[in-house]
Each structure stands twice: as structure tokens, then as C-alpha cells.
Design brief:
Blueprint lengths: L4 H28 L47
């Protein structure tokens, strides 16, 4: 069986391009459908989380205790 020049171009040229396009679409579509991210200067429309740095803004009681510190610290505890 022999292939003509247009069939060869279709098989060896267009086929791989279509495969790459399908894979690229499968990768890009979920990212395009996500909700927009917060940008500095935009209003904050999200619920506050429990780890917020502003306890009053999250309607949480202010921290009254300070964390205890030992004689040593750091990842190895030797500084």
C-alpha cells in the first residue's frame, strides 16, 4: 500500500498537531474555568478564615497569651 503526498502530509503532519491541540485543550480548559483571583486593590469579597491576622475583622477574640519561648530555637534548636 502506498500513500500519496497529501495523505502522507495529512498522516504525518496534521495528525500530531491535532493530538497536541487536544492535549493542550484538556490542560488549559480547567484553568480557564476557575473563578478570578484576588488582585491588589480589588474589594475583598471572601469570608474571613480562622487563621486571619486581623482577629477583629474575623469577629474573633484577640489573643491574650504570648507563645512560650525556650532557651534554644531554630529548626535544630541550637542557636
Amino acid at each position: 500500500m502506498t500513500l500519496s503526498v497529501p495523505e502522507t502530509i495529512l498522516f504525518l503532519g496534521v495528525g500530531p498537531v491535532v493530538i497536541y491541540a487536544v492535549v493542550a485543550a484538556l490542560v488549559a480548559v480547567p484553568k480557564l474555568r476557575r473563578r478570578p483571583k484576588y488582585r491588589p486593590g480589588d474589594p475583598w469579597n471572601f469570608k474571613p478564615l480562622w487563621w486571619t491576622a486581623n482577629p477583629a475583622g474575623a469577629q474573633l477574640p484577640a489573643a491574650t497569651e504570648h507563645p512560650r519561648t525556650g532557651d534554644k530555637g531554630g529548626a535544630r534548636g541550637n542557636w
